[in-house]
Amino acid sequence: MMLQPPCRVLVVDDSALVRQVLSEILAADPGIEVVGTAADPFLAREKIKRLNPDVLTLDVEMPRMDGLAFLENLMRLHPLPVVMVSSLTERGADTTLQALALGAVDFVAKPKLDVARGLEVYAEELRAKVKMAARSRVRASASPLRRPALSSNTPASIGFRTTDRLIAIGASAGGTEALRVVLEMMPADSPAIVLTQHLPASFSTAFAERLDKHSPMSVREATDGEAILPGHAYLPSGGRHLRIIRDGARWRCRVDDTAPVNLHKPAVDVLFRSVAQSAGANAIGAILTGMGEDGARGLLDMKQAGATTLAQDEASSVVWGMPGSAVRLGAVDEVLPLERIAERLLALARA
């Protein structure tokens, strides 16, 4: 059996300490080879040409050239899997979401204090995401930062007046952009949508605001107990699970602070299982790009409760972990490319 060669990584960060710590963390994994480091994007550009790495880790805030400007040029001229190492500040959250829009595969949150010791805590996550990035699909980007908030072909109204349909969508790595693609194709009076995307607690507000700008629907962070209404999409608020509960003839959001599930909080399985219990055959489920298996069993629960279930196909997924797991489990009725998921959700909701 042929052994897979280690993935070759270039570490780009303006801090010598962070470069050293990241290099040591990554090199401790036999599946990773750190081929070099760079203190700024100009040095990184030269080393990319010379070393031809499989993956970049990239800091956002750097001297001489902003990390986002560098990423935009890189994805246009020399697309390469990039894992952002970003701060968890409010500004860091917004910048990281922009980086994901530009084509970064994923990100690891840089601890605010005691970076050296803090990054040790993130060692396992960092190594897993770098190896996943090496297997991911990246495409040349056409500068999504300058894209208009809503496309000119915003879908026409389709006239839903009741909450008799509920759409549940889960995603992880690559999902911040995949969800944007789906939501910007959903008309303002679509059936209600409940969403779970793996994100750190401090990112949820910036992410909800970002999706709201791009979608004809009203996208918001869910508050515990609020009624679920057509034309609205609900995300769990920072680092909490979102469940759906039945209240007479309507559904309500249940936002709670219970333990992580599948190492995630929010977890897609938590949302999907509650939708299976509370909405059954009135629901439609979709699992999008993401690393790992979260959501696969919950989607199977939905299918067994009578819901129609969709998965994003491998070719359009950044990482076909979660959708692939759901397909292998027999949880999926239809496998579709990302750009066809919104129209299929609407067609199923009409049926």
From TrEMBL:
Residue span(s) of domain Response regulatory: 8-125
Query: What's noted about post-translational modification?
Result: Phosphorylated by CheA. Phosphorylation of the N-terminal regulatory domain activates the methylesterase activity.
Q: Which domain of life is it from?
A: Bacteria
What PROSITE patterns does its record include?
A: CHEB, RESPONSE_REGULATORY
Give GO BP annotations, semicolon-separated.
chemotaxis
List the Gene Ontology MF annotations in alphabetical order. Answer: phosphorelay response regulator activity; protein-glutamate methylesterase activity; protein-glutamine glutaminase activity
Q: Which UniProt keywords apply?
A: Chemotaxis, Cytoplasm, Hydrolase, Phosphoprotein
Q: Which residues carry this modification: 4-aspartylphosphate?
A: 59
- State a GO cellular component annotated for this protein: cytoplasm
- Location within or outside the cell: Cytoplasm
- Active site residues per record: 172, 198, 294
Query: Which E.C. number(s) belong to this protein?
Result: 3.1.1.61, 3.5.1.44
Q: Where is the CheB-type methylesterase domain?
A: 160-351
Q: Please write the reaction equations for the catalytic activity of this protein.
A: L-glutaminyl-[protein] + H2O = L-glutamyl-[protein] + NH4(+); [protein]-L-glutamate 5-O-methyl ester + H2O = L-glutamyl-[protein] + methanol + H(+)
List all membrane-crossing ranges: none
Q: Which residues form a coiled coil?
A: none
State its role.
Involved in chemotaxis. Part of a chemotaxis signal transduction system that modulates chemotaxis in response to various stimuli. Catalyzes the demethylation of specific methylglutamate residues introduced into the chemoreceptors (methyl-accepting chemotaxis proteins or MCP) by CheR. Also mediates the irreversible deamidation of specific glutamine residues to glutamic acid.
**Belongs to which family?**
Belongs to the CheB family.
The domain comment in this protein's record states: Contains a C-terminal catalytic domain, and an N-terminal region which modulates catalytic activity.
Q: Cross-referenced HAMAP family, in alphabetical order?
A: CheB_chemtxs
Identification of the protein by name: Protein-glutamate methylesterase/protein-glutamine glutaminase
- What species does this protein belong to? Stenotrophomonas humi
Q: What is the lineage of its organism?
A: Bacteria, Pseudomonadati, Pseudomonadota, Gammaproteobacteria, Lysobacterales
* Gene designation: cheB
